[in-house]
Amino acid sequence: MLLFSKETLLAGARMSCVLELAVAATLFVMGCVLVASNHYHLALGSRVGSSGGGLIFLSLLYPIPAWFTFKASQFHNKFMLLVHIVLVCGIVTLQLIVGGTTFAIAVPTFAYDVAAACLVDGHLNNATFLASCQAYFQSDEYAGLSLAWQTYYNESLGDASAGQALAKLQDASYCCGLGPPEHCQSEYYPATPLCYKGGSCAYDFPMGSCGLVGVAGQSMGCATAFHQYFASTIKTVGAFVLALTSLPMLFVVLSLCLVFKRKDEDVLPTMSYAWRSRARVYVAADIRRMERMDL
Fold first, then answer.
1. What is the C-alpha separation between 123 and 183, in angstroms, rounded?
2. pLDDT single digits (tens) 216-245
3. 209 in the same domain as 131
4. N-to-C CA span, the chain
């Protein structure tokens, strides 16, 4: 088949070299974004930075098998092809680990429905239910979300555009502020520029004017929606990193096919059908005649 011909496989090997470098560049960019994103570090923990570092490390490994496959495509060197296969399989294994770890970061410690129930004002009027929610409010997950939310809030005081994304999040999720309304330790949260009645605010650092709305029984905070806001991006990154392993594995199959191809095609020897010239037969009389001529 033309698809599995030697020339096609060699061309595919050269192309795989370029694509492996493209995979490396993609992982490098994603890793740098994760490492540099302070908000994601605060909201989801330091594992975000670790995953970003893992992606950068993988991006530095991919050029090595890319070089081997490039040289192998030039000389059809089977040893280099085998080295390429081993290296790519090792890198893909690491990539699966990093991608799975990145995806796992987005999984919440507490189920979203449980956490959302703890953010509704009316639910917390029950002392027993409030006590059951203390594990969530005292968790590292909620503490990280609080740090990230307050960072956005402080940035929005100097730059109104910094809080626009969270203002839209509040509108879409029908929530206001991070935590449950009217349920901080002193019953009210600190005053904000738009929510300063009595020197305090009923909402937990609300973005925009939602804090001016009175608190009702179904009023709720945005902690779960805020976690989903970050988790959706991290899940996408993790899933993409996992899906990206299919490309180098395709290159492994290509290299395997090339390993089983002969370096040089068998060639039949050239057959010559030219008639041989007749050899002259000398008799004894001819030999004596030649001897007399020499004398």
1. 11
2. 888 899 999 999 999 999 999 999 999 999
3. yes
4. 75
